[in-house]
């Protein structure tokens, strides 16, 4: 039997169908209601965990599905396409789960991975700092050794979901690392640790997952809070950042699918002249353009995930960046077209697109901005001089 490249394996197609069914049974109305009531997506998160969807990338011996990033990205894309994205999937199983799988000790894997895999705990991730921003080499959160313990001190900003997390993986530098080039040291900090506090940052888009400024005031940690080597180099961090970018792309692609599906449905049914509005090329062509660019974006995401799962960190880095860029663009374009297709209803709360229009912008900013990706591609893919 001939195989068709660019199609996914049967298992992943089945996974997509199962997630679409489960997330679809909650749908956008569930998320909108939770957002309105200032509640978390606890039922959906638990249900996804119970079905094994949150841990598909975690090794089987630690309670996961034994798959890879291509599987986890498929899960998030389907949930987002069903109108019920789970932002903390980008963080807990993708970043933290991968870093612990690749860099943790056996005891750390036993401790954290089964709970991350079944969703019974959430681990947030904190790298961004107020004064360092996109330039992570400038972070100043510092870990100092004190006997058998570490003492962590610093400040983080825009940390998603720390209020619903049991622990947070904090990126720091060790006190003796005085050069500008970051040698990241990664620590799991329980969210009830003495000296750890956070403050909500109000945002102009509304979602159940919130962002926080985090204050780390001489938090004392046992030696085994350190994940990986204190001197292990950047690869330990990028073990998590490539998955983060692929999941960012999955989130955006799913959101774009959601917007496109709703816009197409509206264009097929809304009639204000002789025929439905989808008859007019002014409506149909932008939708067709979104469809084409969405398929391009999904293909780059799938390639990035395949490289990541094959252990090609350099190739995955290049394609994860490009996938994140493409996802951010198509989510913004798709939401813009969807709103336009809906006319006034596009901004009516009932249709839920106005809020997503702002949320889609996130894909151009986080976890790495559009400009920093262009810097990276110009330098690494095109061999142009370093600009940053
Ligand atoms: C909703 C949300 C959730 C987030 N969740 C998390 C989280 O869970 N954990 C976490 O650690 N962080 C999180 N972040 C932070 C996010 O990763 C940062 O916002 C992002 O990396 C950009 O950093 P910054 O906001 O400091 O922008 P800045 O670095 O201040 O950049 C501002 C602008 O300048 C541009 N710019 C900067 N440097 C250059 C350059 N050299 N060349 C060209 N342009 C440049 C940027 O592209 C951007 O447009 C989140 C952010 C948001 C908005």
Automatic annotation (TrEMBL):
PANTHER family cross-referenced by the UniProt entry: DEHYDROGENASE, PUTATIVE (AFU_ORTHOLOGUE AFUA_7G06510)-RELATED, MEDIUM-CHAIN SPECIFIC ACYL-COA DEHYDROGENASE, MITOCHONDRIAL-RELATED
The organism of origin for this protein: Nocardioides marmoriginsengisoli
Domain Acyl-CoA dehydrogenase/oxidase C-terminal: 235-380
Keywords: FAD, Flavoprotein, Oxidoreductase
Names of required cofactors: FAD
Domain (Acyl-CoA oxidase/dehydrogenase middle) ranges: 124-202
Domain Acyl-CoA dehydrogenase/oxidase N-terminal span(s) in chain numbering: 10-119
Any one GO BP annotation for this protein: fatty acid beta-oxidation using acyl-CoA dehydrogenase
Family designation: Belongs to the acyl-CoA dehydrogenase family.
GO molecular function: acyl-CoA dehydrogenase activity; flavin adenine dinucleotide binding
Record carries keyword Flavoprotein: yes
Gene3D superfamilies the record matches: Acyl-CoA dehydrogenase/oxidase, N-terminal domain (1.10.540.10), Butyryl-CoA Dehydrogenase, subunit A, domain 2 (2.40.110.10), Butyryl-CoA Dehydrogenase, subunit A, domain 3 (1.20.140.10)
Protein name: Acyl-CoA dehydrogenase family protein
GO CC terms of this entry: cytoplasm
InterPro entries: Acyl-CoA_dehydrogenase, Acyl-CoA_Oxase/DH_mid-dom, Acyl-CoA_Oxase/DH_mid-dom_sf, AcylCo_DH-like_C, AcylCo_DH/oxidase_C, AcylCoA_DH/ox_N, AcylCoA_DH/ox_N_sf, AcylCoA_DH/oxidase_NM_dom_sf
């Amino acid at each position: 039997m001939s195989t068709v490249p660019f199609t996914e394996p049967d298992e992943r197609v089945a996974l997509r169908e199962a997630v679409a069914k489960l997330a679809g049974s909650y749908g956008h109305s569930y998320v909108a209601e939770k957002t309105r009531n200032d509640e978390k997506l606890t039922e959906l998160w638990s249900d996804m965990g119970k079905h094994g969807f949150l841990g598909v990338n975690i090794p089987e011996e630690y309670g996961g599905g034994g798959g890879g990033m291509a599987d986890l990205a498929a899960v998030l894309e389907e949930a987002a396409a069903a109108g019920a994205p789970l932002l903390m999937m980008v963080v807990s199983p993708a970043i933290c789960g991968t870093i612990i799988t690749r860099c943790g000790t056996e005891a750390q894997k036993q401790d954290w991975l089964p709970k991350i895999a079944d969703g019974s705990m959430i681990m947030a991730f904190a790298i961004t700092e107020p004064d360092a921003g996109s330039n992570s080499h400038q972070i100043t959160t510092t870990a100092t050794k004190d006997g058998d313990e570490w003492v962590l001190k610093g400040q983080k900003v825009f940390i998603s979901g720390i209020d619903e997390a049991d622990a947070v993986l904090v990126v720091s530098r060790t006190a003796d690392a005085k050069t500008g080039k970051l040698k990241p040291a990664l620590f799991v900090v329980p969210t009830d640790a003495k000296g750890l506090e956070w403050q909500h940052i109000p945002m102009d888009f509304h979602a159940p997952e919130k962002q926080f400024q985090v204050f780390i005031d001489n938090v004392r940690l046992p030696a085994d809070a350190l994940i990986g080597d204190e001197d292990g180099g950047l690869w330990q961090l990028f073990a998590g950042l490539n998955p983060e970018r692929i999941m960012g792309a999955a989130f955006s692609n799913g959101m774009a699918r959601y917007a496109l599906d709703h816009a197409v449905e509206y264009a097929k049914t809304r009639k204000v002249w002789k025929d439905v509005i989808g008859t007019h090329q002014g409506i149909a062509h932008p939708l067709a353009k979104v469809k084409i660019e969405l398929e391009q974006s999904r293909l780059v995401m799938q390639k990035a995930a395949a490289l990541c799962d094959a252990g090609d960190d350099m190739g995955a880095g290049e394609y994860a960046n490009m996938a994140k860029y493409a996802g951010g663009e198509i989510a913004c374009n798709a939401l813009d077209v969807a709103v336009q297709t809906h006319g006034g209803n596009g901004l009516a709360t009932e249709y839920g697109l106005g809020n997503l229009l702002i949320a889609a912008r996130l894909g151009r900013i986080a976890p790495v901005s559009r400009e920093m990706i262009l810097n990276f591609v110009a330098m690494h893919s095109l061999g142009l001089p370093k600009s940053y």
